[in-house]
User: Fold 3-dehydroquinate synthase from Sulfurimonas autotrophica.
Amino acid sequence: MQVNIPLKQVIDNSYDITIDTIEKKHFDKKVAIVTNPKVAGLHLAYLLSKISAKELYIITVPDGEEYKNQASIDLILESLFNHRFNRKSMLIAFGGGVIGDMTGYAASIYQRGIDFIQVPTTLLSQVDASVGGKTGINNAYGKNLIGAFYQPKAVYIDPHFLSTLPKREFGAGVAEIIKMTVTFNKDFFEFLEKADLHDKKVLQEAIKQAVETKAEVVAKDEKEHGLRAALNYGHTFGHVIENETNYKTYLHGEAVAIGIVMANETAVAMGLMSEEEAQRIKNLLQKYNLPTSYVIKDVNNFYETFFLDKKSSDASVTFIVPIGIGGVKITDAVDKELILSVLSKFGEN
Amino acid sequence: MQVNIPLKQVIDNSYDITIDTIEKKHFDKKVAIVTNPKVAGLHLAYLLSKISAKELYIITVPDGEEYKNQASIDLILESLFNHRFNRKSMLIAFGGGVIGDMTGYAASIYQRGIDFIQVPTTLLSQVDASVGGKTGINNAYGKNLIGAFYQPKAVYIDPHFLSTLPKREFGAGVAEIIKMTVTFNKDFFEFLEKADLHDKKVLQEAIKQAVETKAEVVAKDEKEHGLRAALNYGHTFGHVIENETNYKTYLHGEAVAIGIVMANETAVAMGLMSEEEAQRIKNLLQKYNLPTSYVIKDVNNFYETFFLDKKSSDASVTFIVPIGIGGVKITDAVDKELILSVLSKFGEN
Assistant:
């Protein structure tokens, strides 16, 4: 005999992203702000002047991608258990992408899921991690290999935090904006070629456009079965670069910038992009001091590392290659020899 | 400015539970059967005569509730990474509730979620863990405090596995069936008072009824915001008992049996149940050799432990008290003194 368990439901995970100075808020519940010592030192006073709670706790985890691991998750959970957080309690992710990913993941597994909101403090996390619901941690096998799809209840992007952002981190955020324009928005790409993101108004508009573009893509494909994979443009290569350099040499956005150049070379080799278009994209990356070259020591090893990446499946890797500027192709049918020949252009010389 | 991220979606997590001899199946993908040494020794040969895969792996984790922890999850994940499982790969939970909860949780966080199916081998996991999507692990603070809501793709309940089930474990499963009838199905309770679950036909019907009843409740309230809490009848007390005895003295279903008696005493004290009804339930539990008494050494300590339980919120505990037989009340407004006086009946004497 058979019993059907019917679980077809309308689930509303919608939320608002506010791009503005945070308004004062009080939460009538237990709230923990999860952050790192650096962000806390720079900006916690500002956040605490805006946000209060019935019971407020601050949890800091070590700063850096190398601490985006199970030990940090344990540290967060331990603190929540210690202070008897319950299903109605809430977390606030206060920092960059690493803090956002870990806080979201901790929220998703604490007592099978509690609310969290995001206050991203870097340009990268504002335009990227604030939309999409990807949470998780790294491990010895690679990046983001453990995690959950879990949406925040709200995101507050306050331009205030960008005032202290180092130049390199600013550039890393710009790389994600450029990524979005190349794959989905030719007009905005051409606008960026002329405009300057150091102009506050231009920047706020760019954040909005990037967030809206990503939101459109994610709304169509929340769990990355198809279109959403296009957001990985530059990431397939970028992740390998981060892996090879132990996440120490490049900021995520910088690795993505190099990855974008590699994906473009692949597109050129496939006849999908002109060399001139690839050069325009490289120019825009360089305008924000982003790295566009990388010395691959072992081409075969680089290629092998693709298969550890979570976006790869049994015997193929999914490549995101732009079609000119403003278009994108998602394919796992890229010839190995073609990729190796592209990679060998980046080989040691 | 504000951007809305629209994520209102129809999500279909429906699946079938088959209560019958498993039919032969081949999966054209990587599959890992997660089990423990004991179940594997008794029944793996049988399962492997039914199930094959393109690439098949067996992962065993230590047997017992005390190993339902992060270390076992790490062991499972490590093996999946090792063998390069990807998003299209699948897990099979093969064992009792502990195996089901851990395998489901591992599936939920591996690369942000892969498929899993359940082949429960104990009566308890067949009637209880097979419906509801609760997955997770224990930690130093208590039971199931870390986890996710994650549904299997299918459940296969094969009566074959019950043939080797020890008497105590059989009883533990019966406790969950009795739980379901007291709260939701008076007719079936009265049927059980006369029938014998050792009769195969009666048992299969009972499994079906229990699974259907739970499915109805879960479909109405997947994430336990209301009605579903009623399934915790006997569990609020039972969890404390398991906690106090370090999960060593009682099987889960046995602790629930005692918890049912305690919940009934609470109902009697609240005037919701007659002493005669409480006695009938106790009789039915005893018919299957289930424990119905427990010596509470420290009533206040017992009470305090309620608040660590994940079902409790800020300053209250949710109690599930039956209204006679076939009805149930979910309330967090039970007077502390009343509970203490009920508990003191179980005090050391």
User: Anything to note?
Assistant: The CA atoms of residues 81 and 110 of chain A lie 9 Å apart.
